[in-house]
Design goal:
The chain has 699 residues and is α+β, with helices and mostly antiparallel strands. It folds into five domains: 52 residues, no CATH class; 102 residues, Rossmann fold (3-Layer(aba) Sandwich), CATH 3.40.50; 166 residues, Hnrnp arginine n-methyltransferase1 (Distorted Sandwich); 136 residues, Vaccinia Virus protein VP39 (Rossmann fold), CATH 3.40.50; 169 residues, Hnrnp arginine n-methyltransferase1 (Distorted Sandwich). Strands 9, 12, 13, 14, 17, 18 and 19 form a seven-stranded antiparallel sheet that branches. Strands 28, 31, 32, 33, 35, 36 and 37 form a seven-stranded antiparallel sheet that branches. The longest helix has 20 residues. It is globular and about 90 Å long.
């Protein structure tokens, strides 16, 4: 489903067609300028990228989904035939045509399949023909809401069996309510069967200081010199209105405390006309299982697939999943976290109220004490700007105690009461740390308007206006006048820039330091000192499936679909994509290796070069990916800050990844079984003109 493209963006793009040249200008991040610039690509780049990044393959690798859809369709067809009826199927959003072909093999008399995404509709037609189902399936390249019924319509009569998959992590985010409502009103018989027939949404309140940092920035202690506290408008704001989708099963159980058993908060009946409400609010009385405060609400759902209610597909996390021994993996339907407007303190055995709401496309939740009356909840909106300007993972990074303590220790060694500091970054608290540690003057270079407002609010709330001066301009435009004629003693950066999609895009910091060189003192300190790109060969448990060919699925040949995706990937994809690897278990099959280092203290231009390293397999396994990350050297005492593993890699043990950044990952088109001694060469080509790091891999 294309909506899933919005949940985990791979890279930004905009297309401007230049018809004379038969090419497309595509925007991308320039590590040299830290801004978006334009590169020339194939005229069909945008088209191919949309195909390559669709989530169809991810769904088709979901064996449990496929098996249960097939079983439910068989049951529905048998039931209709037992009633003496011909089975007339409607498949909304057919994708590859899989559900339509299942219906044909199950004995359906005729099938109408609609698919609005034209490339996929064409592909589905070829797949249906390849599998010998074309005589019973009529494929229409339209949205279901555009279909007509009648002698001259797309369908000659209404269907009596609807099979569809129009769900996302939030269940209703792809418009399921509207799709079902329209289908019942215009396209289906009144006594039709629907697969799946219903869904239950579950919610579970939890206490977790770790999770709360994805929504709020906690006070930061600064090496016994004071505290940097967040402005009250940030702490009073409920946060971003959108769900926080992720793999809940990968959050270590010791980082949260469940405050109640899961509760059913909504039931959606897809099988009946006029059964779905576009707006609904429910209230659930809960008894707390432990002392704590409600910092977040976990959400997931299940589907009842068949008319008899015997086949259930659950998206529950590991600790409450009905089949814990065989937990299915899926990336198209994850779980989600929602945040209350204010964290609610509760005591064990105390009652409190969970209020759950939905409109036609989204869910939201809040909690209230037992003596509070729950109001009608409006859809939450960020009123402070923090949650709009700064992503969830970045909020977590800003509240990471270990990271902030490391920076405090380093800065304390370099800052005196005469220090003049410049911080380069987006939404960065380092200027406040430096000021609290006693620097004479700190200049915060914040080129992003939205994040600069966040930093400005922190500066004013903590009374640091005289010590910290905010420079809202690109670093290349900074002059002596901006620095009040002072020479820079210390340049610092996390580094973090909102335009960076993979860790090495933060190489922009090197160019920023170069621009500041004429304004530095002769004894200037630059932190970090350098950035190193590292790599390791991986055996991911499941992540490889999002880019792997499907081949055959439930007995249907889908190689035509694989070829479509592969062709589009060759046009539009880079070899390395960003992924939050902490959500995707994997074990190292090689030692980690350094590929290239960039010295931030060297102000001269970085020359183009090519580096090749060999990753040698040191244990039996299935090699299906290469993980890449950056490590920053802080210059002394072997202190390093990494965007990769948070502990040493150990063979046959799962890697623990930094959860506040996306690492880079190259996924092999076909996993390879390997033994010790097998070599994987990784080559990085650095372009001095564009700042690009291009990777190639050869097994």
């Amino acid at each position: 489903m294309l909506a899933s493209l919005l949940t985990k963006p791979v890279f930004l793009r905009n297309c401007l067609h230049h018809h004379k040249a038969m090419s497309t200008f595509v925007s991308r991040v320039s590590p040299v300028t830290g801004k978006m610039d334009w590169v020339l690509q194939d005229d069909n780049y945008d088209y191919h990228q949309e195909i390559a990044r669709s989530a169809y393959a991810d769904m088709l690798h979901d064996a449990e989904r496929n098996e249960k859809y097939y079983a439910a369709i068989r049951q529905a067809v048998l039931l209709l035939h037992s009633r003496g009826k011909k089975v007339n199927v409607l498949d909304i959003g057919t994708g590859t045509g899989l559900l339509s072909m299942m219906a044909v093999r199950a004995g359906a008399d005729k099938v109408t399949a609609c698919e609005a995404f034209k490339p996929m509709a064409q592909c589905a037609g070829e797949i249906i023909k390849k599998n010998g189902c074309e005589e019973k399936i009529t494929l229409i390249p339209k949205r279901s809401t555009e279909l007509t019924v009648g002698p001259d319509g797309d369908m000659t009569e209404r269907a009596n069996l609807l099979v569809t998959e129009v769900f996302d992590t939030e269940l209703i985010g792809e418009g399921a309510i509207g799709t079902y409502t329209h289908a019942h009103a215009q396209l289906l018989e009144d006594d039709c069967i629907v697969v799946p027939g219903s869904s239950t949404v579950y919610a579970q309140p939890v206490h977790s200081s770790f999770i709360s940092k994805w929504n709020q920035i906690p006070p930061v202690s600064v090496a016994n010199t004071g505290v940097i506290s967040p402005p009250p408008e940030f702490t009073r704001c409920g946060g971003a209105p959108s769900l926080h989708d992720l793999q809940l099963s990968q959050i270590p159980s010791n980082l949260f405390t469940v405050l109640s058993e899961p509760h059913e908060v909504f039931w959606f009946d897809f099988s009946k006309k006029n059964a779905l409400k576009s707006h609904e609010q429910s209230e659930t009385r809960l008894t707390s299982l432990a002392d704590g405060q409600v910092d977040a609400i976990f959400m997931w759902w299940d589907l009842v697939m068949d008319p008899k209610g015997e086949i259930t597909l659950s998206c529950a996390p590991q600790w409450v999943h009905p089949d814990k021994k065989k937990l299915p993996w899926r990336d198209h339907w994850m779980q989600a976290i929602y945040y209350p407007s204010v964290s609610l303190p509760v005591r064990q055995n105390e009652t409190f109220h969970l209020v759950s709401c939905h409109d036609e496309y989204s869910l939201w939740f809040d909690v209230f004490g037992s003596r509070q009356s729950a109001p009608v909840l409006e859809h939450p909106v960020c009123t402070c700007g923090l949650h709009v300007a700064i992503s969830r993972t970045r909020l977590g990074m800003m509240g990471d105690d270990r990271r902030m303590e490391t920076w405090c220790k380093i800065l304390k060694k370099h800052i005196t009461d005469s220090s003049v500091c410049v911080s380069v970054g987006d939404g960065c608290l380092l200027p406040l740390l430096a000021a609290k540690l006693g620097a004479k003057q700190v200049f915060a270079v914040e080129r992003n308007i939205s994040t600069s407002r966040v930093v400005s609010a922190f500066i004013h709330h903590n009374g640091l206006e005289k010590r910290v001066k905010l420079l809202r301009k690109p670093v290349e435009d900074i002059t002596e006048d901006d620095l009040d004629g002072l020479k820079i003693d210390l340049v610092m950066s996390e580094p973090y820039f909102t335009s960076s999609l993979v860790p090495w895009h933060n190489l922009y910091y090197h160019y920023a330091v170069g621009h500041l060189a004429p304004l530095m003192s002769s004894s200037v300190t630059v932190l970090p000192v350098s950035m190193t790109i590292k790599a390791v060969g991986m055996q991911f448990s499941d992540l490889w499936k999002i880019r792997a060919p499907v081949g055959n699925c439930e007995g249907f040949d889908l190689h035509i679909f694989d070829q479509l995706i592969q062709n589009s990937r060759q046009v539009s994809d880079v070899s390395v994509e960003p992924q939050p690897l902490w959500e995707y278990p994997g074990k190292p099959l090689t030692q980690e290796r350094e590929i290239i280092s960039f010295d931030f203290t060297n102000n001269s231009r970085i020359a183009s070069e090519e580096k090749t390293v060999t990753l040698t397999v040191n244990s039996d396994g299935t090699l299906n990916g290469v993980a890449l990350w950056t490590e920053y050297d802080m210059g002394e005492d072997s202190v390093k800050i990494s965007t990769g593993p948070t502990s040493d890699l150990v063979a046959n043990e799962f890697v623990r990844w930094d959860c506040h950044t996306r690492q880079g990952v190259h996924l092999l088109p076909q996993p390879k079984h390997v033994r010790p001694g097998v070599e994987l060469t990784t080559t990085l080509s650095f372009n001095e003109n564009t700042g690009d790091c291009a990777f190639t891999f050869h097994l």
